[in-house]
Design goal:
- This protein is mostly helical and 332 residues long.
- The protein has a domain of 134 residues: Farnesyl Diphosphate Synthase (Orthogonal Bundle), CATH 1.10.600.10.
- Helices cover 71% and strands 1% of the residues.
- The chain is built from 17 helices and two strands.
- Strands 1-2 form a two-stranded antiparallel sheet.
- The longest helix is centred in the middle third of the chain and has 27 residues.
- The relative contact order is 0.11.
- Keywords: Magnesium, Metal-binding, Transferase.
Length: 332
């Protein structure tokens, strides 16, 4: 079965590299399905639930891509890519419980099918599976995975607690995104170079690249949630607003003191329903905060590109730059 690469790589012109990534991802996908299976049929249904639903597979592809800076044929590269996706899947089980989300990747979320406790335990099981695999990749890979695991938990914890009294809400939000999303994407980029034996000096730039791309990826989601139609993104606009989830455009409203902005921020803070949502979306779409949010998002993508300027010119570097540009150009 041939696996499609994430749309972020559509701008890559090196067909040999793309072919190699597609071939490796086919094997990685097989291993992901194997790693999320369980001998007990009841547990298997839970642990493989989201893996079978598919997904962008952005993290394992980044691992495979950066491995081409070294020996991409090393079999540990495939295991590292699997670890990145299984770790991501584990976080989704937990996130969906925290957010009480009803759907994920077009299927009912695990907690909607089996309840909160089972969903949390299944996420824990997948974290354990990822830890088992990464333990075979060496001490450094294991330590990096453990550190990112801590960041993932802290990100969720800080999001749940909210900003402190003296903390800027936007700074707090960016920190949450860095931990919850950026940390694992950073490791995905870094670990490919590590296990492939690439020059050790490449790891820090790749880590910075991944972290900043992760932040940009989530920020563009904030814009898409408000700006895009269902035909463009495949999602119903305003889901974050309805759920009361803070997003960058809404947080930026606090910087505008005109009466209309203050009233709009207050209306959002008081909670929205499906009846009031359309007018709020219409107001936000023409508000300066949308351009401001896009400028900040583009800034993070550009800073990701700057982080890898030190890498030698290669098809991998060109692909990473294309990846960064495509992240902020997407509509869904």
């Amino acid at each position: 079965m041939k696996v499609s690469l994430p749309s972020q790589l559509r701008l890559v012109t090196d067909r040999k590299l793309i072919s190699a990534l597609e071939s490796s991802m086919t094997e990685v996908e097989r291993r992901i399905q194997d790693a999320t299976r369980h001998a007990e049929s009841v547990v298997d249904a839970m642990s493989s639930h989201l893996a079978k639903a598919g997904g962008k597979r952005m993290r394992p592809v980044l691992t495979l891509l950066t491995a081409h800076l070294g020996d991409s044929e090393n079999q540990q590269v495939l295991d590292a890519a699997v670890v990145m996706e299984i770790t991501h899947l584990a976080t989704l089980y937990h996130d969906d419980v925290m957010d009480q989300a009803a759907k994920r990747r077009g299927v009912d979320t695990a907690h909607m099918v089996w309840g909160n406790n089972i969903a949390i335990l299944t996420g824990d099981l997948l974290f354990a599976r990822a830890s088992n695999i990464v333990s075979t990749l060496g001490q450094e890979a294991l330590q990096l995975q453990a550190k990112v695991f801590e960041q993932l938990v802290l990100g969720q914890l800080h999001e749940t607690i909210g900003p402190l009294e003296d903390q800027d809400p936007i700074d707090h939000y960016i920190e949450v995104l860095k931990d919850k999303t950026g940390s694992l994407i950073a490791l995905s980029a870094q670990i490919g170079a590590l296990v492939s034996g690439a020059d050790a000096s490449f790891q820090e730039p790749l880590k910075q690249f991944g972290e900043r791309i992760g932040i940009a990826f989530q920020l563009i989601d904030d814009i898409i949630d408000i700006q895009s139609t269902k035909e463009q993104s495949g999602k119903v606009a305003g889901t974050d607003l309805l759920a009361g989830v803070p997003t960058l455009p809404v947080l930026l409203l606090k910087n505008h003191s005109d009466a209309d902005s203050v009233a709009l921020a207050a209306q959002i803070a008081n909670g929205l329903d499906e009846e009031s949502l359309p007018s709020v979306l219409a107001s936000l779409r023409v508000h300066p905060v949308m351009d401001e949010a896009l400028e900040i998002t583009n800034g993070w993508a550009q800073s990701a590109i700057v982080a890898i300027e030190v890498l030698p010119q290669s098809s991998v570097k060109s692909a990473l730059i294309a990846f960064a540009q495509a992240v902020v150009d997407r509509k869904g």
